[in-house]
Amino acid sequence: MTITVYGAGAIGGVTGAALARAGQDVPLADRAEDHVAAMNAHGLTMASSSRSPAGSSR
What we know:
Structural class: alpha+beta
Radius of gyration: 11 Å
Distance between the termini: 16 Å
Order of helices and strands: EHEHEE
Helix content: 25-40%
Strand order of the largest sheet: 1-2
Number of strands: 4
């Protein structure tokens, strides 16, 4: 299933990463072109409060 998340900021990014880790196809969209370019170039890495990786999405 493809689930598109519009608004890939803090909440949308975490939601999208969790869905991707669960095996869903999750395109992320955001109105800030520089934000989208950075995510396309580097992916989106989530970190927990202990600074250990909590998940990743590309």
